[in-house]
Amino acid sequence: MRSHPREKTGRNDPCPCGSGKKYKLCCLSSTSIALAGPETVDTPWSRQRDASDRLTVDLQRTLKRDFGDSVLDAWMDFNQDDDPVPLSETPHELSIFSPYVLFEWDPERPVRRSAEKPRGGIVVWAYLKKAASRLSALEHLILEQAIARPVSFYEIVRVHPGRGAVLRDILIGEETEIEEHSGSEMMRPGDVIYAQIWILPEVATLGRSAPIPMPPDRKVEIIKLRAQLQRKIKKQNRELSAADLTRYTDEIRTVYLGIRDALSKPPKLQNTDGEPFLSHKIHFNTLSAQSTFDALASLAWGVTKEDLLEEAERNPDGSLRSIEFAWLKKGNKMHPSWESTVLGHLKIFGKTLLVEVNSANRAKRIREEIEQRLGSQAIHVGTETESPEQMLKQAKQRKAQRGAEEEIDEDDLMRDPEVRRQIEAEVQKQVEGWVRTKVPALGGRTPLQAVADPDGREMVEALLQGWERQNQAPGPASIVRPDISALRRLLNLPEKTKSPLK
Q: How far apart are CA 94 and CA 86, in angstroms?
């Protein structure tokens, strides 16, 4: 469904200059967005901006005068949290929080019935009691839109930088062409914004918008929300509407807050079994290198003793001095295409055994395994742990100590064509195995299973778009960028074409 503002000046008509373009994208556009600044020209856009700015100043005065002591309460209500991060530490959130306070916040808001229209918050009503009679028709309409229009999730479909964009409401499917000057310069097709659109005479524009656009893969949470809301109205045998979205505004904001917080937090590192990353070094004293190796060699699944011993070091008398090998298991629960998984590394030198693993669970498992196999021949001396943050800090310190002249060029290895081909082939193999991997974001389904239904197909598409966006990010030559189009072919999804910018 496409929504257009009401037209009075023929903005969508062919331009009279004969260019073949629409009037709004030709002569009207060049006039209203002159280099001198769009606000200097009397256009529907500039008029609504002026009126909106005046209302904002007046409403902020009302907020400060009558409700200044309640802003913290409003901030807690907006975040749905009794102890949110202070607003002073997240000032960028004002672009979405301030309209919430001015137009929506009501600490005693009753539960609204489905047939009732949004009533607005305590600030806007306090303002209207004193100022309603002196407001212009446009100002009344702006306040009506700010109160009644839903705050929803919009996918950026097309962008006309400096002029505007086409946005699609992910929850109800409505497309709207908006005029947005400076904001459109930062928009990218495929991104998602949490925003409110105002439909005013001759122009549709953003009434409010969260400060940070969301990458395409975050659409997965929004599609799940859409399914939840559709279940709420299932008995009414109809599709979701804008009125439904205003009724479920808290549920929609809950999803926004979850995505916002996830994007602002550093990623949690995990190992290949999905366990939190925590480096462990486990030290044992043993009876001898040979007896320790004999007891533990079978931990290297799929590798014979003879193959392991090829890398061993021996004493002058031929006895085993030291050896290193990987702790391997068959397959991988998160990556079905993997033949084996490296769980850790064992180093035997003389009467000392050192085991290195990267999670608490693996540390517990390997210690129990060693003590069961070696019994009294192995004495646990101690375990050292190191978090990813500690490891990064130490790596930076070591790099600083080495000095720039000793730095190793990490790209050298990838400049070897044969090495790069082998690594790219292995990465591509693992990436293509993803289509048969159970993905938590897809409800535990594999992508091949998920694309069988419309919502699942849209979720998989969102994840692929996010992957493609990562591939577009600049980086060193050592980065291997998998071919996502191969995944699309495996999943029978259309090839991604470059999104038009203008």
A: 12
Cβ proximity of 275 and 343 under 8 Å: no
Residues pairing with 205 in the sheet: 198
Separation CA 477–CA 348 (nearest Å): 36
Q: Which residue has the tokens 């938590």?
A: 440
Does the pLDDT value for residue 463 go beyond 80? yes
Question: Measured in Å, how far apart are the chain's first and last C-alpha atoms?
Answer: 21
List the alpha helices (DSSP H) in 233-339: 242-247, 249-264, 289-296, 305-309
Please tell me the distance from the alpha carbon of residue 248 to that of residue 245, in angstroms, as a whole number: 5
The answer to whether 430 and 439 are in contact (CB under 8 A) is no
Q: What does residue 165 show for φ and ψ, rounded to 5 degrees?
A: -160, 165
* pLDDT of 24 strictly over 60: no
| pTM of the model as a whole | 0.69
Phi, psi (deg, nearest 5) at residue 300: -85, 85
Nearest-CA neighbor of 351 among 329, 322, 328, 374? 322
Task: Give the pLDDT band (50/70/90) at residue 32.
Answer: very low
In the predicted model, is pLDDT for residue 482 greater than 90? Answer: no
User: Using one digit for the tens of pLDDT, what is the confidence trace for 292-351?
Assistant: 999 999 999 989 999 999 989 999 999 999 999 999 988 876 666 677 788 999 999 999
Calculate mean pLDDT across residues 94-105: 94
Alpha helices (H) along 157-304:
219-232, 242-247, 249-264, 289-296
Q: Where are the alpha helices (DSSP H) in 375-436?
A: 388-402, 417-432
DSSP state string for 456-468: HHHHHHHHHHHHH
